[in-house]
């Protein structure tokens, strides 16, 4: 496969299905979620991009099996959707960014995902290793792109916004080629908007094409029922004070007749569509599936900010897509477009309701951030934790009170996902993989 001639932003859709939920951190048994009908329903509703990682336990295998069905092959050929995955993170305290491991990881991901190529490969949680290691991994991924053709676009992902910016700037400076994509998570939410206030312009200046906003619920922090408890227990890195502030915010939302998670999802999706447009994408936001929603949207031929949404159940998918459809309908206001269909129950158009809901969410968001209050508004947890040592390296990647090192991330507190624990050896060749592994 030749190197892509066009930037990723010309084709990537602005909504990506995240599969971190296909993991023991979020669910007691990811295989019991019914992932195949979930993925197929997502495709039917217009989703055309899936984000995953070998670090997400069995997520790659689950997604690969769901996409490797007669139905998907018949109606959704491989070139009609995007697969985004990652390399480098082996376990909670183990990272391998070496060229050898990068090559093996790419090969293994293709096998697990049952595909001959990957659309995007990120260096996963890049704040946990040295800039030199990140640069080496990016160079190897680009070599694979150019010489082997098993991947198309290269990026980095992580939590601390300033580290992502520093690395993007360094890679442009050292290689003369900007990153295609930089994914941040939990940094444009009701609780924390640092991706916008501290990161956006720096990433634009570094030539980054796309910046997806992942985890609009802060990895489950912004939920009425609190942070998720999966088979790995209470893994979320948020301190008790922040957790309590979010519980208080959920109670306030309840008093307004709202669910915190509904407000949080709509706030992030709607606002990042606009605020993230500078680093957004032109792909079809409904996957050519307008007929499913009753009427055709009149949307601008302009970039829209890209979001990654993780769901575990079909009910969650349906709710997410309902919100997404309404958010898109509200965009017509920016174009003075024709209103949508009439809602028979109250003679209010979809477009008019969407505009009202946008204003309503702004008021609710302001109230929720007031309840969360300082010091928890825009608070970020350490990533990695002070004194973290990568057990596959002798390098200490985070020293307390160093001004140029991370101020945030969650996964340092996460236990090792079972399917990655067996990869610690690094001595053997990449094994053949199956869903039974």
Automatic annotation (TrEMBL):
Q: Which CDD domains match?
A: AKR_ARA2
For whether the record's keyword set contains DNA repair, the answer is: no
Q: Which domain of life is it from?
A: Eukaryota
Report if keyword Oxidoreductase is assigned.
Answer: yes
- Show where the NADP-dependent oxidoreductase domain sits: 14-328
Q: Which Pfam families match?
A: Aldo_ket_red
One of the protein's GO biological processes? dehydro-D-arabinono-1,4-lactone biosynthetic process
* Gene Ontology MF term list: D-arabinose 1-dehydrogenase [NAD(P)+] activity
Instruction: Provide a GO CC annotation, any one.
Output: cytosol
Q: Which PANTHER family is this protein grouped with? A: GH17980P-RELATED
| Protein name listed in UniProt | NADP-dependent oxidoreductase domain-containing protein
